[in-house]
Specification:
globular, alpha+beta, GMP Synthetase, Chain A, domain 3, 3 helices, 38% helix
């Protein structure tokens, strides 16, 4: 569910929503959600002073709820054009 939430939010923000790629992996002590967008969409997804990125991370942590014992991280990075 967290992966889908990040994907939904990023697609709504991005100029090229079809180029948004979200993956999720579990590590020993954390769940890492990787959000990849085109370089020209990085500013829209991160926002001024990182406010949008911080909001996305806050929403993901809230969606995870109290049940999740692992740390949740959202990494935002540029995606190479194909």
């Amino acid at each position: 569910m967290m992966k889908e939430l990040v994907e939904y939010l990023a697609r709504a923000l991005a100029e090229h929503p079809d180029q948004v790629l979200v993956t999720q992996r579990e590590e020993e002590d954390a769940i890492v959600i990787e959000l990849k967008v085109l370089p020209e969409d990085m500013g829209k997804v991160i926002g001024k002073q990182g406010r949008i990125a911080k909001s996305i991370r806050t929403l993901v942590k809230a969606a995870a709820g109290q049940d999740e014992r692992k740390k949740i991280a959202v990494d935002i990075m540029p995606r190479e054009e194909e």
